[in-house]
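Case study.
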Amino acid sequence: MNEGIFKAMSDPTRRKIIELLKDGPKTAGEIASHFSHAQPTISRHLNVLKNAHVVVDQREGTFIIYRLNTTVLQDWLAWLMKHFGGENNDEKE
Amino acid sequence: MNEGIFKAMSDPTRRKIIELLKDGPKTAGEIASHFSHAQPTISRHLNVLKNAHVVVDQREGTFIIYRLNTTVLQDWLAWLMKHFGGENNDEKE
DNA sequence: TGATTATATAGCTAAATGGCTAAACATTGA
DNA sequence: TCAATGTTTAGCCATTTAGCTATATAATCA
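After joint prediction, the assembly is written out as follows.
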């Protein structure tokens, strides 16, 4: 499993960005407006998510629209379930 | 959701420790023997996992035995599924 | 072309992280 | 009580991270 997605998901701001994007694609500015951080700070977070392929961007005029890459998230979740999920662990007690 | 578990899970060494412990409880030394890191390094990783309540320790003579807290892991996975899992996201296209 | 708007990048700082070695601590057993 | 063993803690260092401000880039429009 790609290391990047773990780092991407380990930050609360980035997780909140993902939750925002679950509601549909948004521009960088729209995303930034939900936070009290400076705009470049959010831009960098978006870049981390992009490098992990958790989001995808697309320019639309002067705007840049970000959307979730749900496949990557779901693959990650499936991997987590497989590796850390409730498998039978027959210990003595 | 507790921030600690995200940080705990974001490191590959710690994830490998968890996978080792899925196989059953192990002493700190036994865990450390699976890595090429110095033993105190692993001890510190174990401490991170302990602080996130992902593992639990128990002294047994001079040994300290670590075991998984599977409940915490499963709660975390459930939370992830709920927040990032495949909910219906009816976008136009 | 120049102004405006949206966004990213550069460059900085403080704090967190992960590695190491050396030293401390806890338990056991002679 | 002392030595041995298993483990943690302390202290150090290099790297990464997340924040900021200032600046650069890209697209649009007059």
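Observations recorded in class. Chain A touches chain B through 27 residues (CB under 8 Å). Chain A has one domain: 3-84. We will return to this complex in the next lecture.
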